[in-house]
From TrEMBL:
Residues 13-379 form the Amine oxidase domain. PANTHER family: DEHYDROGENASE-RELATED, PHYTOENE DEHYDROGENASE. This is Pyridine nucleotide-disulfide oxidoreductase domain-containing protein 2. It comes from the Bacteria. GO terms for molecular function: oxidoreductase activity. Interacts with COX5B; this interaction may contribute to localize PYROXD2 to the inner face of the inner mitochondrial membrane. It comes from Glutamicibacter ectropisis. Probable oxidoreductase that may play a role as regulator of mitochondrial function.
């Protein structure tokens, strides 16, 4: 009998495998797809000569993550951090979030610059302490209570800026609202505001990095760490029920629904019911474009930005996001990543790829290419004329690519305040599924979505402590 079986080889599953293997356990990883990485995969589509990030393309949390640091990803992967972390196009105006906060404040100017500094600067100065708190379960006694208090105060201020004073501080509010809109649904609550602030702060702390070679480089680095310590990874292997596995412990890097299904007969009824009816955020529609030249932005400074937000003012962004809960917005808030500006391995010589997406209703089959193309054309006249290829991935397609993305929900479940705490249950040890040896370690568990590997990192440590009384996996010889 093996010690640990990990179902799913996304960043969380691979991080968990690396931790367990480094603790000296026999670890087997089972991935239904033919390649590892989950939402952190990079590959060709439809025979294209270009390669595309199938999930996220820019990785602020990878640089903040203790898992990535401890498991050697920061040493194994070349991260490129653009001078402009992200920019937000309002109309004829653009707001820029430079990695340099002072330059950002100067460019915003006047009261906009000052309000942005007051919100973000305290978080930038304490980013590592705040990361240690937020990249964990929120019910844990914080190691840095003063940093958490600072974050809470800024969150209240962020809610005010985005939802009350957005007209007075229009450019600052738009810049911040674009970060908050990474959390789908347009919530006006503290979880949305806090997530947006944390994301904005990372832009001025360590930047929003693009991994050389694509997101796959992160997954490959985690896999290399796991296999270097004896873990074995099996791709193209679908597990239908945990009874198939001769394993003492099983860690699920899957959706909560799939973990409940695979564990039928082993979990308490109430927990099974809760996991099987996970509250979901809207889905996403992604379009991968191959271009004959870089995007012809009207504002040429956007050609140095890793990420561009399109969607107008904070009020317009919020309205578009709330519309996305019910139907695809005609003028959606959208995110454009431009990796080939910084990494020429993504496309044939002279060509470029961009990755663009917007939110749509959960499980939608809606093709948003035209809406996305129209939005980019407004900010980049002539964009349509340089398109060589366009590969549309609907919300339903996202789930087909990666079964953990139920209905195209990239968040692993709704990220409002309740959804952040009850993930999948309210507990100091939420990864443990109340049945010996069973643990949920995906984005459906704390700390939630993004490529940081922390669900697997923390879930594996929970397993080691509970099942083997190993409290410090790094000390095991």
């Amino acid at each position: 009998m093996i010690d640990v079986a990990v179902i799913g080889a996304g960043p969380n599953g691979l991080a968990a495998a690396a931790v367990a293997a480094r603790a000296g356990l026999n670890v087997q990883v089972y991935e239904a797809n033919d390649s590892i990485g989950g939402a952190a995969r990079t590959q060709s589509l439809n025979g294209s000569e270009a390669i595309f990030d199938l999930g996220s393309a820019v990785h602020p949390m990878a640089l903040q993550s203790p898992a990535m640091r401890e498991l050697g990803v920061h040493q194994k992967v070349d991260f490129i951090t653009p001078e402009i972390s992200f920019a937000h196009v309002l109309d004829e105006r653009t707001a820029y979030a430079y990695k340099d906060l002072e330059r950002t404040v100067e460019e915003l100017g006047g009261e906009d610059g000052q309000i942005y500094r007051r919100l973000v600067q305290p978080l930038v100065h304490q980013i590592d302490q705040i990361s240690d708190t937020l990249l964990n379960t929120l019910l844990k006694v914080p190691s840095h209570p003063l940093a958490l208090a600072t974050f809470a105060a800024s969150t209240v201020g962020g809610m005010g800026l985005k939802d009350v004073f957005s007209k007075k501080y229009e450019r600052a509010a738009a810049l911040y609202s674009g970060c908050a809109a990474h959390v789908a649904g347009g919530s006006r609550g503290p979880a949305n505001a806090g997530a947006g602030l944390f994301l904005a702060a990372t832009a001025h702390a360590k930047g929003w990095p693009i991994p050389l070679g694509g997101s796959q480089a992160i997954s490959n680095a985690l896999a290399a760490e796991a296999t270097a310590h004896g873990a074995q990874i099996h791709t193209g292997v679908r597990v239908n029920h945990i009874d198939e596995l001769a394993a003492q412990n099983i860690l699920f890097d899957t959706s909560a629904e799939e973990a409940a299904k695979l564990s039928t007969g082993h979990l308490p009824h109430q927990l099974t019911s809760a996991m099987s009816t996970t509250r979901r955020s809207p889905g996403s529609c992604v379009v991968h474009f191959v271009l004959s030249e870089p995007v012809p932005w009207r504002d040429q400074a956007l050609s140095t930005a890793g990420t561009v937000h399109l969607g107008g003012t904070a009020k317009q962004v919020g309205a578009a996001e709330r519309t996305a809960n019910r139907r695809g917005a005609a003028n959606p808030f959208m995110i454009v990543a431009q990796p080939s500006l910084f990494d020429d391995s993504r496309a044939p010589a002279g060509q470029h790829v961009i990755w663009a997406y917007c939110h749509v209703p959960l499980d939608s089959s809606q093709d948003m290419r035209q809406e996305i193309q129209t939005m980019i054309n407004k900010a980049a006249p002539g964009f349509s004329e340089i398109i060589l290829e366009a590969h549309v991935v609907t919300a339903q397609d996202l789930e087909r690519q990666n079964a953990a993305l139920i209905g195209g929900d990239l968040s692993g479940g709704t990220m409002d305040l309740l959804g952040t705490i009850k993930r999948p249950r309210i507990s100091l040890d939420p990864w443990y599924l109340l049945s010996k040896g069973l643990y949920l370690i995906s984005s459906a568990a704390p700390p939630g979505p993004s490529v940081h590997g922390m669900g697997g990192f923390l879930g594996a440590q929970s397993m080691l402590k509970r099942e083997y009384n190993i409290k410090n996996w790094k000390s095991v010889k």
